[in-house]
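FAQ: What does the model actually see?

It sees only this:
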Amino acid sequence: MSEEKPKEPTTNKWLIGPGLGLVIMGFAYILWWFAGPWAWEAIATDPRWAHNWAYAIIIFNVGLAWYHKSPLSRTIAMIQSFMLPVTASGSFNTIICTIITAIILVIWLIIVEMEKSRQKNFMEEKFSKRGLLWTNMHTLIIAWILIAHMGLMFFIVRLPLERQLYQTAHNAGYLANLPPEAFEFSTWTFDIGLFIFLCVVIWEQYKMGYNVQGKPWPKYSFYVCIIIMAASLLALLIQDLTIGFDWVDKFYG
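And it is asked to produce this:
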């Protein structure tokens, strides 16, 4: 009786995981709002739509941070992700928020390039082995949670107040910095999708732990990112075919 050969461990050649999903999502988001002529038309008409630039840069940067395990670079990405709920709250000018997030991205890229060129990560020697693993893991977890705050700020903070604020004044409260989005189908779809992404990626992280063996990461969070993008595009199409994009006056008067 011939012995069965042990199965070789599966590999993840393309490093598919939450990082790649967020990189693709963030890059597509950047292209949509930087390269699309409709985007510039929307922002020229209403500069408050520039908040999407900040969102896109943050998502892209957090995705990139997954591929570079260093306490300093991941801490920078985590700090940058705090700009997402700040931007989503409408408390500050979104152009300024975008500039800040872009500057942090440049700093992150410089730090990563320096670490790669010197073949040594900053601050690494200051950590114990366990402390280093903990920092590298939890900085990204916090960043993922903050990305999901895009939906939290929309559903909990802005949505309940939007009609009342708009009927008081078109730029009352957070509407001074963010446009009305209560009936933007893609906003609902994208934000709900981010909650699903957070649940899936936290579950994956729990399963993997510190992953000192370097096992391939589960791919569910990656697929969730792709589904979120596809569903958001479908939501845009449905809105175009139903209530349209000039819905504010129809619903708020």
